[in-house]
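Training component of the fellowship. As part of building independent skills, the fellow (R.M.) carried out the full modelling exercise for a liganded target. The chosen ligand was adenosine-5'-triphosphate. The inputs are recorded below so that the supervisory panel can assess the work.
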Amino acid sequence: MPSNARTAMVLLKIFRISFLYALTAVRHIEHFRLSVSRPLWTVDSCYNWRHNKSCQAIFGMVRVNPRQSGANPRADATESNFGAERQMIDIKDLHASYGQLSALKGIDLTVQAGEITFVVGPNGAGKSTLLKCIAGLLKPRAGSVTFKGKSILGEQPERLCRNGLALVPEGRHIFATLTVEENLRLAAMHRKDSAEVRADIEKAIETFPILGKRFKGAAGYLSGGEQQQLAIARAILLKPTLMMIDEPSLGLAPLVVDQVYDSLKKLNETGLTLLVVEQSTARVLDLADRVAVLRNGKVVLNQSGDQLGDGEALETAYFGYKVDHAALVTD
Ligand code: ATP
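Fellow's submitted model of the complex:
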């Protein structure tokens, strides 16, 4: 090989190695810069989890690139687009499917600001599918969904999350190997207001005192009810204007369900709008400002709390026939 070509190859190699070193250095400097302002585990978690689908599903913002930890004009622009509207969610003629299976067949529903709206229905009615469509996790086939007056169809879950729409998923999905504190901090990792984050963690602990007692313990050791409280507390850290909760009573003892619902009521009293999905109608008469009954992907009843009365219409809509209570009494 002529000496000129050899020299060129050596130079090319040196250039390549220098370039790779420079890239690595930039990444480490950025990593260090972030670790000064945030706990290291947060940064590591962010690097490791940002491509993890289930993380995006729960937090949305886990996909936030830490390199963009400064002002994000796109997100800020979106935030300013959401005005204060009385109507928090407005759903019109929503259709959604999984392949050939039609799960939602023309849903109409509104959620008013400051209210507790329940969506109840039996297994497979389409309740979770409805929440997934609102949270941006499932693309509807047709229809419209607006959040504070703006269409959110096609929006990424993490952007909706950052704009105040939090989902507490069915089954909680807490991070079992992380501590309670880490679970809470993870939810707030996209926020830059560290003083307010601390205040919100205190507020979450005030609402769920057990989390304060287990603050440094692994979340996996919490009981089912405590994990449900952690999942809701984590959603508080997202600073939501609307919190959607999928079956908060699932698998919990009645006493624990009472505690969870007491906390939800307190959160609602602070002005937080709630959209609660449940299989059971047990809490509806006490708490609902509005209830929609879903069966086979359709809304079969939509009533305000005042219209519910003794709940007979609710029961009939839920089961699809009028229940004869006298015939149910046995000795
Ligand atoms: P449950 O109370 O049991 O959670 P649900 O009312 O939340 O039920 P969905 O989970 O929304 O009901 O399901 C609605 C329909 O869509 C059901 O028939 C279900 O089998 C189907 N379904 C849900 N998720 C999927 C999926 N990922 N792939 C295929 N079908 C699905």
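The panel noted the following from the submitted structure. Residues 98, 101, 103, 121, 123-129, 279 surround adenosine-5'-triphosphate (CB under 6 Å). The longest strand covers residues 87-98.
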